[in-house]
Amino acid sequence: MSDDGEHALTVIVFVGSVFSPYYAAARRRLAAPDPEQHCGFNAVLYNPRRKHWAMTERGAGDLRRDSEQLSARGSSIRWQGRQVSVTLDEVTVPLPGRLRGRIELELPGITATEYALDPAGKHRWWPIAPSCRARVSMEKPGLSWEGHGYFDSNRGAEPLERAFRDWDWSRAPLADGGSLVQYHARLRDGSERLLALRFGATGAVTELSPLPTQPLPRATIWRMARSTQADPGTPVTVRRTLEDTPFYSRSLLDCRALGEPVTAVHESLDLDRFSRRWVQLLLPFRLPRR
């Protein structure tokens, strides 16, 4: 997010895209479909008056990767030491246009701990650099800014919807240069996984007792249920809903956490909704395959 709070950018690199309707169809046909056949870059640029969304799925023939870099057609990511460079060249939907530019992340520290999100350890999350500096230079649309960044990795040995019913996640930059990351996952077996982690600016982590859960207003269009964790007895305000889809919402929240005012990036995911046939039929309109 930019320092002035006006702009934000999300980039997710998929190998075996968890939200791909084509990968889901392949799993229904095959015992072990190749995840590299379902890869790509999801890039979303948020400006005050417009959103630029791209998520084109690619096949294995477009994928190149080694220990330092990964590319899929025109987009790539390279990680060397404490520098991460992302080059984007994608086509937006539903209105076709170019999303082209470069993102540089400076990682002040790298965390050492990977967290299991389910009891079987089939879904794992590594918050590589929960606090970092981001420099964004876009050619299309023409825009440059600097701000606070976040860099993590997830991997799994089964579809998300097999283990989880839904979850809420949030990340809030803190005044000392660190960040607070919170997970509240509800699993198929009826259990819950709650994580509240305070990361220092260089990656040192402290596990905290989860903050009290507070309900949020449902998303406006698709009525997604949302909740978050914040200091007890303090209000939480939805500043802006960035994504409002049948099974997923992304929002900016203003609240108090750990005794200080914060602006948090918040996500809610409903995997029961995601699994419904009508949702799967809608997905290709936002996730084309080329």
Name a few traits of the molecule.
eight-stranded antiparallel sheet, 8% helix, mainly beta, AttH-like fold, 4 helices, 290 residues, 20 strands
Can you tell me about this structure?
With 290 residues, the protein is mainly beta. It has one domain: AttH-like domain (AttH-like fold). It has 4 helices and 20 strands. The chain has helices at residues 21-29, 160-163, 271-275, 277-282, and strands at residues 8-15, 39-46, 51-55, 63-65, 69-72, 75-80, 83-91, 98-106, 115-116, 123-140, 143-156, 164-173, 179-187, 192-199, 205-207, 213-216, 226-229, 237-244, 248-257, 260-270. Strands 4, 5, 6, 7, 8, 9, 10 and 11 form an 8-stranded antiparallel beta sheet that branches. A 7-stranded antiparallel beta sheet has the order 15-14-13-12-20-19-18. A hairpin with a 3-residue loop joins strand 4 and strand 5 (69-72). The mean pLDDT is 97.
In short:
With 290 residues, the chain is mostly beta strands.
Topology:
Layout: E1 8-15, H1 21-29, E2 39-46, E3 51-55, E4 63-65, E5 69-72, E6 75-80, E7 83-91, E8 98-106, E9 115-116, E10 123-140, E11 143-156, H2 160-163, E12 164-173, E13 179-187, E14 192-199, E15 205-207, E16 213-216, E17 226-229, E18 237-244, E19 248-257, E20 260-270, H3 271-275, H4 277-282
Antiparallel strand pairs: 1-2, 2-3, 4-5, 5-6, 6-7, 7-8, 8-10, 9-10, 10-11, 12-13, 12-20, 13-14, 14-15, 16-17, 18-19, 19-20
Kindly give the count of domains. Answer: 1
Q: Give the N-to-C terminal Cα separation.
A: 30 Å
State the helicity in percent bands. under 10%
Order of helices and strands: EHEEEEEEEEEEHEEEEEEEEEHH
Low-confidence stretches: none
**Which CATH C-level class is it?**
Mainly Beta
CATH topology: AttH-like fold
Using DSSP, what is the number of strands?
20
> Given the helix and strand composition, which structural class is it?
mainly beta
- Main sheet, how many strands, which sense, barrel? 8 strands, antiparallel
Identify the overall geometry: globular
CATH structural architecture: Beta Barrel
User: Radius of gyration over alpha carbons?
Assistant: 18 Å
> What is the number of helices?
4
Give average pLDDT, whole number. 97
CATH superfamily: AttH-like domain
Q: Strand share of the residues?
A: over 45%
